Amino acid sequence: MNHNYHSLKDNPTHQISILLSLFLFSLLAVSFLIFSDTPPLSNELTAASNNNDPLGAALAAAATADKTLIIAVVNKAYVEEGDWPTMLELFLDAFWLGEGTRELLDHLLLVAVDEISYDRCKFLHLHCYRLRLPPAGDNSSAAGDGEEKVFMSREFIGMMWRRTEFLGDVLARGYNFIFTDTDVLWLRNPFPRLTTTRTPDLQISTDRFDGNQWSRSNPINTGFYMVRSNDRTISLFRSWYSLKDNSTGLKEQDVLQAMIREGRSIRERLGVRVRFLDTLYFSGFCQGSRDIRAISTVHANCCRTIIAKVADLRVVVGLWKRFRSNATSVDDSAVLANMAHVACANSWK
């Protein structure tokens, strides 16, 4: 062994050969890394993760650093129903017309329940997720045919319950969110009007505000609410959804309202603190805001069809544009509270 070692050490030709071989090996290794078509391992793992968990990827892409996002559910009717603008177009336009709302689109996740609405979402370069619905006739949910689910129809009730199940899954993944119907116009950034501390757990809009933000007598509306992810709210959504099969003819909102008013199901048993949102800031067609200077959102509630909602929301947009062009006008301050919402009123006839 010692003889061979000294032979190599004392032979310059052998040393040069070894060094040259090492150099060629290093050059080949670098060339392989540079010119290989194989993507880096981290990219492969990311792609596999996205394919195996598309919801996780969609949530992560839309969420803020503290895992908060905005979620809206759409189907074919919301992207095609009626003349221009469609409900989805009107919903998105409000973000552009509103105060401090444009940047919020970066954190909006559109959940599409059919291929047409999903394709439209992708075309608009938004954050999109395709939610699968059970086939027609399945008692657990509504058919995913994309047609309008008329208020309180069997299909409407089924889709609302499927939405509740889905949102419970989002909470279980550790995400906080504002859920918003697409018939809610975001005219101002609502986050400053929402409590961002760890309490309350749930902040929910009302059809008519009774003056007390902690009063369980407020009639809720699940078209707009903010919920924080924690053990209490995850348990709430599981308990809420578990009542689906024993609530025939009731929409998910009615069941949650009963849970809230009973008290034991929400505060005493689950420990959930609920705050009810003032219609001065989070208004709707049931009860309009008294001051357009204070308003954050307008919801086309107390309305039966998409076409009627779009017609009356267009009137709201026109009023908002007029107000923004002349912000000193006093005459416009209380107009929203006094609007007749003619199309929505006629939708019940």
UniProtKB/TrEMBL annotation:
Lineage: superkingdom: Eukaryota
Key word Protein biosynthesis present: no
Signal peptide from the UniProt entry: none
Membrane-spanning intervals of the chain: 16-35
Domain Nucleotide-diphospho-sugar transferase per the UniProt entry, residue ranges: 104-313
Keywords linked to the UniProt accession: Membrane, Transmembrane, Transmembrane helix
Protein name in the entry: Nucleotide-diphospho-sugar transferase domain-containing protein
